[in-house]
Amino acid sequence: MLELVIRAEVEEVENTTKLGKAGEVAGGIFDCIHDITEVIASSPAIHWIRMKDSAYRVETTSRLAQWRIDNVSSCTYRRSDPFHMGFWNWHLALEKNKVLLIKLYPEISNFAKQNPPIASFVIRVLSSAGGDTKLLIHPEVTDKQLKSNDDFVWPIDVPLTGKLIIDVEFLDLKAASPQGGEPCSIWAQGLSQRRSHAAALNGLGRMLIEGIHTDVTISTRDGSVGAHRAILAARSPVFRSMFSHNLQETELSTINISDMTVESCQAFLSYLYGTIQPEEFMAHRLPLLHAADKYDISDLKDACHDSLIEDINASNVLERLQCATLYQLLELRASCLRYLVQFRKIFDIRDEFNVFLQSADRELIADIFQEILATWKGF
């Protein structure tokens, strides 16, 4: 019976997406979400469904971890199951005495002892009881080394009852550098650099930087840069085909890439030549993804895909979802939908989502609703 009611709500909105204007579609979607939530909340079957889930499990996606506790009033101490984030397994813990204490710490292991994480994060607590909702947000924690269960403790002296959601958004995680020196971010280093170094020798970097015997000029939207045909042809089947036929690029020794800036193009060449730096890669991921797709460079496309999954947040999730659809990045698409629907962040960006729906692909809108149906019918 519950599923029939939910499906009726979804069918009503699907009809709206086919017939209505963009504003009507947006309004219909949130009305549907509200109606589905009301039906689910009042269903006697939901308590039994929830009981099947572990009360200690922490759900994770991208850099977000979320722990749901059905009744905080009955808890004097509870420690979550371990959840994985970065290189470490983590625990959340809740203790209640005179005040409520919330703790975050890495699981004890030889690796954690030798490489304690240095974390930057925001932690939020949402409680709900009898229609009364409270949201508490801890000030942003920056570069905090966490070794034991006492290194981060948040005392909450506000009485909390009913359901509790503890939400941890990891902004950055650092580990000690193997070469010594300052700790390095595990998310801004390594992946892109290792893949690019595997594809090109270090000596190629000097050829690009110093312009040694360049034989082709790339003309961009706002400037030009020199490069080498052999390198471009070796890294891209599209460039190889371009230089093998009697095209304008062959005759004039010029390649026109007007959809990139000279700065993005330099980052693109740096990746192909094996000299890209982590900061450069992170700053140009979207134009690099476009170039990787256009010139059929699969390792660069994979590197961009993996990196874009790692830092989904409320300010970029809709743009990432659009990119995932455009470039057929299935894992990124699934992560964005999960962030919006399962973690209910769709409500945090309601205005932006309304604007997004006005230009979004109808199939994508339908997929969002299917995700809502599949996820929320059992909550």
From TrEMBL:
It comes from Carnegiea gigantea. This is BTB domain-containing protein. CDD domains: BACK, BTB_POZ_ZBTB_KLHL-like. SUPFAM superfamilies: POZ domain (SSF54695). Pfam families: BTB. Residues 214-273 form the BTB domain. PROSITE patterns: BTB. InterPro entries: AtSIBP1-like, BTB/POZ_dom, SKP1/BTB/POZ_sf. Pathway: Protein modification; protein ubiquitination. Gene3D superfamilies: Potassium Channel Kv1.1, Chain A (3.30.710.10). It comes from the Eukaryota.
